[in-house]
Amino acid sequence: MNVHRKQITFDDVDDDGLVHSGEIRPATRKTLRGWLGEHCPSGDAEFAVEGRFPESWIPPRLWWRFAPWAGCTAR
Questions:
Q1: 53-73: pLDDT as tens digits
Q2: Which of 1, 20, 35, 75 minimizes the number of CB atoms within 10 Å of its CB?
């Protein structure tokens, strides 16, 4: 999940491994609560949220090490 001012964007992986992308609008607690109730009725889910957590911040000079293409030889 990526939280923006007007929407929350997400990538959802279903039980078959298929990825679905979407948006939750507006980005309010009430709307998010409703979306979670609809998509996670059992209350069992795992999330990764892009947030301002100092311990998760990666200095710009190091971010490429964690990028999806980091194993690629062409840079």
A1: 555 555 665 555 555 544 444
A2: 75
Tokens of 46: 């795992």
Q: Which is it for the CA torsion 71, 72, 73, 75, positive or negative?
A: negative
pLDDT on residue 73:
44
Helical ranges in the chain per DSSP H = 29-39
pLDDT digits (tens, 9 = 90+) for 4-26: 889 999 888 888 888 899 999 99
Residue 55 DSSP code: G
As a dihedral over the C-alpha atoms of residue 37, residue 38, residue 44, residue 46, rounded to 10 degrees, the angle is: -100
- Phi, psi (deg, nearest 5) at residue 9: -95, 150
The pairing of strands 19-24 and 2-3 is unpaired
